[in-house]
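Protein of interest.
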Amino acid sequence: MKKKTIIIALLTLVALAGKGQINYRLEGNIGQPEVTDTLILKEERGEIVDGFIATEVLDTLYIVKGEIMPKEGTWSEPVMARAKGKHILLLHIILDNGTTRIDGTIDGSVVRQSGTSLVDAMNQMDEDHQQLIEEFRQAINSGEPIDTMALIAREDSFVVSVLSAHPSDPVGSLAVNDYASDVHHISPQRGLEHIAMLTPSWVEKEPKLQMLRRDLQALISTGVGTMFIDIVTEYNGKQQRLSDYVGRGKYVLADFWASWCGPCRREIPNLIAIYNKYKDQGLVVLGIATWDDPVKTLKAIKDENIPYPQIINFKKTDTDVYAIGSLPEIILFAPDGTILARGLQGDKIVQQLKKIFND
């Protein structure tokens, strides 16, 4: 081998070594001896495609009578993973340098782990959070007046303490994505501040954090009191827009729903009753079929005898404008297109409309 070739090869090895690498090993028992399964191990990262995360396959895990066959591998850095098979789903598996042992599951999916520093940190975070939840539960059951904002402030302090210690690893990501939802619900702006506490280069590696940041920004821009943002879809060669109904001088109760969504279907009789009561008083009830097969949507409309108009075939990339993460999402728009209320269901809808129509 020529001297120049040897030097280039050595430089390449040095560059690769500089990038860092972990050598992980998974072993253990899920605590379900009746389960034999083949699990696909995927990282909880990946490219964002059509509004969803397309995760990358890391490895294959084999479970025989509940026992996880030891599996070793390498990765560029610690990462959170999940493993899914025909019979079982395992969540929040941290692949770190060293051996991670799994001993049983929590609620059948989240695994109990031990063996590495990051796993220990995650376990401590969960233990501290459970203690906080227990204190909240005791306060609620005490019968004394509850200072909701004080409880939220304590949860916020808990999250901040975790982020300060883990600004660029899976524990910090988990804290923001899974442990701060109450804070984010009260204040999307505070959620953005949580993400900003993480190392920017780490956030750019974590699609979940990027999607959360996008959703929090969307919640701010489509919150109560803001003007509606138009969205458009196409079905059967015809474009349909939210602005075909909203901002045209009438109150609009927009129901983002899907045929496969049980809670959506259970809400429909209530919406039909509201439609029949208020249709002559200036209220438009609008169904917006979301994340659904149009053929199944049309069948559901027929089966439920829905009399009010529908927009069909909204994709997730469309509804991301309103940060819709679950269905149904029911939004009430004022005649000028201003958002009056979000997250309505059941009696909450009735109470909102009673105020408007002086019932």
Summary: The two ends are 90 Å apart (CA to CA). The first strand starts at residue 22 and ends at 29.
